[in-house]
Amino acid sequence: MSPPSARIPTLDGWRTIAIAMVLLSHGAQDIFPDSRFLGGIGSQGVLLFFAISGYLITMLLLMELEQRGRVRIGAFYLRRAFRLLPAASVYLGSLCVLAAFGGIAISGGEIVAALFLYTDYWLKASWYTSHFWSLAVEGHFYIVWPLILAAGMKKALLAALIVVIATLIWRPFGEKLHLSNLVFQRTDLRLDSFGFACLAAILSYQKKLSWLAEWWLLPISVGTALIIVMIPHELDNLREGGRAAIATLLVAGTVARPHGVLARLLELGLMRGIGRISYSVYLWQQVVFTDVIRLPPGAKLLVIFGIAWLSYSWFEVPFIGLGRKLNLFLERDSESGIAAPSTDVA
């Protein structure tokens, strides 16, 4: 049996919104270097990515749990590795080439930190790899959450609730520990983003969030999100928790109401297409939006999307397919008793 691959509507469209926020934030920094609003927009885009990942991964794992009666942990890790590592490795390898020719200054330590998912706790990351903090946070989620969900839906629901509450309690204290370069860019300070999304996915799967389909929820959520971005820094914990919750409401709301106006806009071909390449866009915008490439902002956007399309076509898609084939091969060997070790967690 192949792994569950049911497409969840509007998620690619939300990826487009998220990457647009990041591009706006980073691309306009030369014009508005001290804009708090632009900084908030960029970080909100990252939180939206977290909500999408938490919701999607939980839904896929729940489907597998229902179909198979178990979650195949090893198969999940393999799929994630083949999905994320090839494009990231190409980007990091390109940085090494640029550094070798004197184009940029990077350290070997930050490359290792990016590859092994601890940029969010690495104090010496340059601008060119600093965005890997969010990939490290997602990577930690991918490692731990399947193990929790494999224990059952009820235990996972309780765990997600505990994670949200614990993060809200811990964040005011944790942010005072200077374990990374920037505030709130660590796993322990961002777990509520995934906790909210996992809660929403589990409750949606149990058909307990029908109220999310109400037409008024999404415009209120959008308005509230804009207000939350501007909450003063004295109320950081409230702001960050609110932003995480709103991102989840937006994602879960359009999934629950797939025929609504916003959902239909998110499902437009252009929105879905950009969403598919958003991972590579996120990787490459970090270096293109610097003086390494001396072009006008509009031309830089074309370069970013051109490189991202090539990365998606030449590396992401082929390696995703290879990962699936390898999973199917290992599964057939396991079922035929050839010797493939079991990675299932009951």
Question: What is the count of structural domains?
Answer: 1
Work out the helicity level: over 70%
Instruction: Report the β-strand fraction as a percent range.
Output: under 5%
Write the H/E string, N to C: HHEHHHHHHHHHHHHE
Span from first to last CA?
Answer: 17 Å
Helix/strand/pairing class, anyone? mainly alpha
Alpha plus pi helix count? 14
Low-confidence stretches: 337-346
Report the major sheet. 2 strands, antiparallel
The tally of strands reads 2
- Rg estimate, integer Å: 20 Å
Query: In order across it, which strands form the biggest sheet?
Result: 1-2
The backbone outline, from C-alpha atoms, is globular
Calculate the mean pLDDT score and round it: 86
Describe the structure.
With 346 residues, the chain is mostly helical. It has one domain (11-332). The protein contains 14 helices and two strands; from the N terminus they run ααβααααααααααααβ. The protein has helices spanning 11-27, 36-68, 73-100, 108-115, 127-130, 132-149, 153-174, 187-205, 217-229, 236-256, 261-266, 269-276, 278-288, 297-335; strands at residues 71-72, 344-345. It is globular, with a radius of gyration of 20 Å. 42% of the residues are buried.
